[in-house]
Write a structure and sequence with these properties.
Chain B: This is Stage III sporulation protein AC. The complex is a heterodimer of chains A (128) and B (67). Chain A has helices at 2-21, 25-60, 65-90, 94-126. Chain A has 128 residues and is mainly α.
Chain lengths: 128, 67
């Protein structure tokens, strides 16, 4: 039951951050950031086992590994960008958070273009 | 999956210490030392958090097998 550890850690960190936010807001922001990183690391192992299962399924279905790699890259970009944007938004920098999200969208679009091209090419093969 | 809860308590300890030092130095008329103490504490904590963030990114890279 790792959820007990996670909830306990989150509550303790929240109480400590509220304690210190009054006179040192930058320290409270770093504290919440460290808490977020530690919580993310706690569940990263589980994500890894799920990804291993997906990889196994894809290799069993004779899927092209390039596509699975692209999808995993997109998921990683989305996770990390969301993490950074939320930290910036917590610190009151909504503009920086919006730019991080914009950059993540552009990077995901760049990664998705080859898949779109492949879909279009297979469509063109179907049309006589 | 290494994780260190102690980092949170270290950060909060430095925060409280720097807050008290800031208060004492400010009340004894040494404003510039108060600012230096605040900046020093912030730098120490920032170095810890950035190292943690670097380890986190390495871990994400190895889990998602990105290179």
């Amino acid at each position: 039951m790792e959820i007990m550890q996670i909830v306990g850690l989150g509550i303790v960190a929240a109480v400590l951050a509220v304690t210190i936010r009054h006179n040192k807001p930058e320290m409270a922001m770093l504290l919440s950031m460290a808490t977020g990183i530690i919580l993310f690391m706690l569940v990263l192992g589980k994500i890894g086992s799920v990804i291993d299962v997906l990889r196994d399924l894809a290799s069993r279905a004779n899927l092209n590994m390039v596509y699975l790699g692209t999808i995993l890259k997109i998921v990683a970009i989305a996770y990390i960008a969301d993490f950074g944007a939320q930290i910036c938004r917590d610190a009151g920098e909504g503009a920086v958070a919006s730019k991080i999200e914009f950059a993540a969208k552009v990077l995901i679009l760049v990664l998705a273009v080859p898949i779109m091209i492949a879909v279009l090419q297979s469509l063109l093969k179907l049309v006589p | 999956m290494g994780y260190d809860i102690n980092l949170i308590f270290k950060i909060i300890g430095i925060g409280i210490l720097v807050g008290v030092a800031h208060y004492v130095l400010k009340n004894s008329g040494k404003e510039d030392y108060a600012v230096i103490a605040t900046l020093g504490g912030l730098g120490i904590v920032l170095i810890w958090v950035v190292q943690l963030l670097g380890g986190f990114f390495d871990q994400v890279r190895s889990v998602f097998k990105l290179f």
